[in-house]
Design a protein that fits this description.
This protein is α+β, with helices and mostly antiparallel strands. The chain has 2 domains: 66 residues, no CATH class; 211 residues, Fumarylacetoacetate hydrolase, domain 2, CATH 3.90.850.10. It contains 7 helices and 19 strands.
């Protein structure tokens, strides 16, 4: 399934199932169903959603407005320096750079989350706004001490993430969290793709465009740590819960590392597409005082 959150008019976003160029309006068909993907995961109701989708009325996808599939997860975790090509790029730009010996995680605060087509704000306090096209996944059930072999079984689905970064604020904090957590700096979407829809999440093409210029083009095959290894590592320390969002790092082509640097400004548009999942497309606007 491709599970989406969508709006018609000014109504609150509700859950739907993508079917070609339509969306099955499952909650209007069966009012007993959860109205959000998060709630459906918590209530183990994805099977009921799939059943309802077979008979639910269809709306044209072009007629609805997509929202972030998950808006208030318990955790929004991000992994840094997780692509071999990115490590090589960092060594060229900073000859003394040494890649971390273990997985290095940071938080993106959940208030950064925004929809797949919503504006990204260029902050009042910085001109160092950057993009990072990434594969992300969502935890489907409560778990702890999960082996890498068992890890795929706890994933509800995959989605596209832009780990928007304010580079000067990021570098000023050892945890990176401040520079990763500005409002609107966590676009997610366009929908949540369940694992059965993808042949191999470790062989997906990821591309990022800024104003139609291709800036990133890489494969998840180049990850240092696989998605399964991430889950194994994280679950040694903490309980992972339904709806938790985990984003898996980016590769070469970020604006700050280009020569010369090419950072985002108001009027730009950032599009990120992952093979088999879909595309998010966000305009950049100035934050208003």
């Amino acid at each position: 399934m491709k599970l989406a959150m969508f709006r018609t008019g000014d109504e609150p976003a509700r859950i739907g199932v993508i079917d070609g160029d339509t969306v099955a309006d499952v909650t209007s068909f069966d009012r007993r169903l959860p109205t959000t993907i998060q709630a459906a995961l918590e209530e183990n109701a994805l099977g009921a959603v799939a059943t309802a989708a077979k008979r639910a009325p269809r709306l044209a996808l072009a007629s609805v407005r997509l929202a972030a599939p998950i808006t208030r997860p318990g955790k929004f975790l991000a992994l840094g320096i997780n692509y071999k090509a990115h490590v090589a790029e960092m060594k060229v730009r900073m000859p003394t750079f040494e890649p971390p010996a273990v997985q290095v995680w940071f938080n993106k605060q959940v208030t950064s989350i925004t929809g797949p087509h919503d504006p990204i704000q260029k902050p009042l306090v910085s001109d160092m706004l950057d993009y990072e096209g990434e594969l992300a996944f969502v935890i489907g059930r409560r778990c702890r001490h999960v082996s890498a072999a068992d890890a795929p079984g706890v994933v509800a689905g995959y989605l596209v993430c832009n780990d928007v970064s304010v580079r000067d604020w990021q570098m000023a904090s050892p945890t990176q969290t401040m520079g990763k957590s500005f409002d609107t700096h966590g676009p997610l979407g366009p929908w949540l793709v369940t694992p059965d829809e993808l042949d191999d999440v470790q062989k997906l093409r990821v591309r990022t465009w800024v104003n139609d210029e291709l800036r990133q083009d890489y494969s998840t095959a180049d990850m240092v740590y696989t998605c399964a290894q991430m889950i194994e590592h994280l679950s040694k320390a903490m309980t992972l819960e339904p709806g938790d969002v985990i984003t898996t790092g980016t590769s070469v082509g970020n604006g700050v590392l280009r020569d010369p640097p090419s950072l985002l400004k108001a009027g730009d548009r950032v599009c990120i597409e992952i093979e088999g999942i879909g595309r998010i497309d966000n305009p950049v606007v100035d934050e208003k005082a």
